[in-house]
Amino acid sequence: MNTVWSERLKRNSLGWGLLLPSLLILGLFTYYPIFKTTWLSLFRMDLSTPVPIFNGLGNYAALLEDPVFMKVFINNIWFGLGTVPTSMALAFVMALFADKAIRGKGFIRVAYFYPNMIPMIAVANIWLFLYTPKFGLLAHVASWFSEQEVSLLGQPGTVMGALIVMIIWKEAGYFMLFYLAALQQIPKDLYESASVDGVGMWKVLWRITIPLTMPTSLFVAIVAITNAFKLVDHLWIMTKGGPDNASSLLLYYIYETAFSYNDQGMGAAMTVVLVILLLIVSSLQFFGWDRKIHYE
């Protein structure tokens, strides 16, 4: 028995040794913070309680009664619904054009991807100027339609739409890369056979291109949804979550609660909710959705 275990140890020691640095990093910077945050979420830790008091699930119950949290959570849902489908559809169309273009193919791909290369802080400042009343181009366009001066970032009815447009512009080029790679993996024989049979362009798109890129669409959708719950840099520059929390998102509200209001218990509870939500979204691929959507 000892001989068997010694052989296994010799055979696997190199592999475990190579994995050890990654496991240590994951443990220190991923699993330990998750465990610590979950533990802190069970305590009341705010300015009125300098010594933490065990609160059980009280913080989670308080979240359900917090109107700001519910509003921010709904804002994030609308933000995801506005950015994810549109950015994916736009990325797919851009990838189709970049894949079929004959002249200037490299320039077109770089131009599409360029917005993703700009840091979010810089993007936020650029679009903040575009939305600035009296000076910004988009503010001028909006004033032409409304026949009066419009503050796109200062009105609850327009601020979320303005942010959604900016994020779509920022992310579509990034998602295009995945679709472009997927399009280049489709066998050209399928298109040649369809052309010989006289199949129309739209039918080819519906019967060949879209089904064969569905695994990529699932991956892009998961990335886009998680990004919708992680993007907060632009809020710090453009709106600070206003007006009246109309543009505030979940991660930004977590930051405000934990560091501006010094309520670490509630901030930890909201973080746990966010982590669980992202885990559910990320696990869709591992529950077999990627196998179910393959075109066979």
From TrEMBL:
Q: Where can this protein be found?
A: Cell membrane
Q: How does it sit in the membrane?
A: Multi-pass membrane protein
Provide the ABC transmembrane type-1 domain boundaries.
73-285
Q: Per the annotation, which location comes first and is thus the protein's main one?
A: membrane
Gene3D superfamilies linked: MetI-like (1.10.3720.10)
Output the CDD domains linked to this UniProt entry.
Answer: TM_PBP2
Q: Which residues cross the membrane?
A: 12-34, 77-98, 110-130, 159-183, 204-229, 268-289
Say yes or no: keyword Transport present. yes
Swiss-Prot/TrEMBL keywords = Cell membrane, Membrane, Transmembrane, Transmembrane helix, Transport
Q: Spell out the family assignment given in the record's similarity comment.
A: Belongs to the binding-protein-dependent transport system permease family.
Q: Write the protein's name.
A: ABC transporter permease
Question: What organism is this sequence from?
Answer: Paenibacillus marchantiophytorum
